[in-house]
Amino acid sequence: MIFRKKDILFNVLEAYPSQKFLIYQNSVYYRNQTGLNDTPEGHIDLYELNVNRTSDKIYPFITKASTRGAFSTVSNSPFAANSQFNYGDVIQGSYPMTASISRVHIPQGTEFAKFTFVELYSGDALTVNKNKKYITSLRNTLSYYTRMSRHFSYESNIGDLVWNKGTQELNLISIPSIFFGNSIKKTSVKLGFYLSGTLVAELTDRKGDGELIQTTGPAASSEKVGGVVMYDHGFMILTGSWDLDDTTEEYDGNATDTTPKWTNFAIGLRDPEGETPGVNIPSASYSIDFQGVNPISTLTMFAHARKTEFNISSNPTFVEKTTTRASIVNNKIVYHPVKIKNVAKSNYKNYEENYEEIVYISKIGIYDAAQNLLAVASLANPVKKIKGRDYTFKLKLDI
To answer: Domain range for residue 256?
Structure first.
């Protein structure tokens, strides 16, 4: 049969996978699971390779040749230097490839020179913290989100909305896109701050405009905006510097006791360079909940087997075994009529039903206009086709 226009449908299904992270001390737990072998806790494995291997692990490799193919982690200089890689050398990578959330604490102070990242020195002392580069690099991206809320503004001097993200203390949470897909779903974000197992404060984006509003916690800070979430880019910038509780611990990681704030939320997370601050606050734990937006393109095809079609099988068992299809007579090939096996079942013992054209459909092949086989759909169980009945098979493919 030939697919008609109405037999082929293209749809996009939007899935919202739920994600949950728990941070305690210096450990991250993803969906309350522990890591498998070489996959660290709180990480997701990109290809899920070597998860059950302790030896003889597989790895990616490229041979250095004139095509100049190399891994993206190998820069031009080491690749070109024959002292490191000669032509014919094998450049190896490693599995697993994993990803997890990270945190950057950006202290209050002077920012990098705008747009140039020039470090400012005073004598021999560096006056700009190295982490300031992260917020400076997000300046243009924050400007893109100002259409949603003024709280995305890099600088503001309007009424009570006075700040400069380049100089104020910030807490930057980074979520790789492998966890959320196309974007983070609006109104799905929840950040929980726990002390001794009790939720003392919570931020949610209940308006769906990127503002993280405190919905649980001290009455004095209720309904305050404690930060923003950049849905398409996977960043959460926490600015809330008010006290969430009266207790004090080394939340800043610098051996100085301070009260819990949103700016020290999730301390213990590694930074983008893989370093962990090494905190020891047994009473504090943190949770990050959100949903991703994952569009799945789906191709649906309806394959029709009409009454007068596909009533003959290409299976060799379709004919009687004793039947001879061709023979050589007087140096000539003579074709004989073949007897098709009667598979019609009778309800009576030792009684053969009259012959009926019956075939069993077990596979459906999909061809292009040039009769090239593109795909084969296998049925879980063969379907009995009777000549007097039309059949339609629904084929579905995620693309």
So the answer is: 15-44+99-296
